[in-house]
Amino acid sequence: MFELNRRTPITPQELQKASGGLVRDIEAFVIGTTRASGTPASLIEGAWELTRHTTDWLRWGLSGMPMTGDQIAAHADAAAHWLRTEGWNPSDAACRGIYAAVRHAEHTDPSHRFSTDTRDTLTRIFSLLIRTLTGAPHAYYDSWDQHPARRPEEAFGLLAAAAVFARTYGPATEAEAGPAAA
After folding, report:
1. Given CA atoms 85, 31, 125, 131 in this order, what sign does their dihedral have?
2. Which of 14, 15, 53, 145 is most buried (most C-beta within 10 Å)?
3. pLDDT in tens, 84-102
């Protein structure tokens, strides 16, 4: 796993080595909640059940532009990478929590895949995942992230779980997001 204050780019070999860390991050997220039960897969499925199987919000951004599950997931992955590099600290003074990481990824993406659309969709996915774990009727990820009991592994787990959710239920291509697919 990557140390929290890493300042050098991740190599493909390190990324491959860390792939097992994805599951550990999601498991830490599951374990760190009050109503945690089941597996990472059941977490993703439970969050999906809360959507009542609607996908328009995963296909179309609020701007009216289509999105793919991979775009949304890559946004979460880029945010996690930034947090691992800069060090997770969600305090208002440090400004290195999930909110800041998602915004940073959006504004520094060289290929312009990330936007307010992918950010807003991630916000909804975060809420679904937190609600699934806690049983709460509502949840806001920034408040969850800043809670004094939160641990870094849980924050990384939320980002990892959101990426898995987006890749699992989001459209594979922009063509699939079109009106015929909805």
Report:
1. negative
2. 145
3. 999 999 999 999 999 999 9
Residue 174 DSSP label: G
pTM for this predicted structure: 0.79
66 in Cβ contact with 177 (< 8 Å): yes
C-beta of residue 98 within 8 angstroms of C-beta of residue 157: no
C-alpha 18: how far from chain center = 17
Distance of CA 2 to the CA centre of its chain: 18
For the chain, domain boundaries = 22-177
* CA gap 92, 157 in Å, rounded: 21
145 pLDDT higher than 80: yes
CB 177 within 8 A of CB 60: yes
Of 175, 171, 143, give the one whose Cα is nearest residue 158: 143
CB atoms within 10 A of CB 75: 28
Residues linked to residue 89 through DSSP beta bridges, in sequence order = 96
Could you give the CA distance from residue 85 to residue 3 in angstroms, rounded to a whole number? 8
Distance CA 89, CA 58 (A): 29
Let me know how long the chain is: 182
